[in-house]
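Checklist before submission:
- one chain only
- standard amino acids only
- sequence pasted in full

Submission:
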Amino acid sequence: MASRRIYVEGVKKTLFGIGSVEELGERLRRLGMEKVLLVMDSELGKGPLRERISKILEGSSIRYGLYLEVSPEPSPWVADKGAEMGRDLQVQGVVGVGGGSTLDVAKAIAVLVTNGGKAEDYIGLDLVPNPGIPSVMVPTTAGTGSEATFTAVFTMREQKKKGGINSPYLYPELAILDPELTLELPPYITAFTGMDALVHAIESYTSKAAHFLSRPISWEAIQIIGQNLRGAVYNGKDIHARSSMLKGSYLAGLGLAMAGVGLVHAMAYPLGALYDIPHGVANGVILPYVLEYNYPAKVAEYAEISWSLGTEAEGEREAASLLPERCFELLQDVGMPPSLKELGIPREDLPKMAEIAMGVTRPIQNNPRPVDTEAILRIYENAFEG
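Returned file contents:
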């Protein structure tokens, strides 16, 4: 059988290192940007990081407009409003500083400035017709890996669903990864963003679309996150753990961009759309139960992951079967909720959630084991009690 064709795109340049954010102004100059839209969330925009970024930009004579209307699980109108501001100011680029929601909004703004229309018009695959203005992403969490992906996810609250703009035009020109910017993250946010990254790594490593370029990247992310998440949660000032988690999150984002994700993400989407559960929390809670379902289809890969997370069983099948337990223990160790019940999800809503999850087609099709609505409902029921 002939091998399938593989085509890989991605973020054009990456700068990693402690203090690397200080190069932001210089790097924008190199990219030909003299006026940018700086996108941050409302809380981050009140703190010292905003002042630090402002000084860096001003020190390089970069003019900027400040957009602070980003909130967790953002609605599409947030990007629409930011794009309007960017056009009015005639900016040459967009700088996103913050967590995954902020970076997603910033990437969407960059393409909306030139393409017009509304963010909701482009939700889907390859619907953005033209390139946007250049964007630079500066993550302050180690979670979504949005700085490495071609996706911007939004919550359509009126329709009670989530969806993403997926286009190669969303890849940023530059990602600046400075571990110092993650040192102030509270333990719980560190935990659920870190679990989000682990889910990206596991699902991209075992997806039907995984290939010889994506697998080593996803595998490295699994090992880094598995070895450092607990340390980052319980000793937030540990710069080694923070640096490692930022590396792991970035690599998991690369793996996601190349190979996609699976059933965990499909089942997490209704939790965000219906109940505003943070995406990393939803992914983390669902993960052990999807692993339990997928296990027969990926015994060898699950055994490898299980061993990397500390399983001592020698047999491949036994090690693979213990992977859900290893991930459940990790959830407990970092203080995340173990069940949908603890999240306050009504049990009577599980059938509706299963119907919605089945409609998240790309992750469903990418899952290593075929799934239907009844199977999803059973997984939700298992996850309800924990």
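Reviewer check: Residues 13-182 form a domain with the Rossmann fold fold (CATH 3.40.50.1970).
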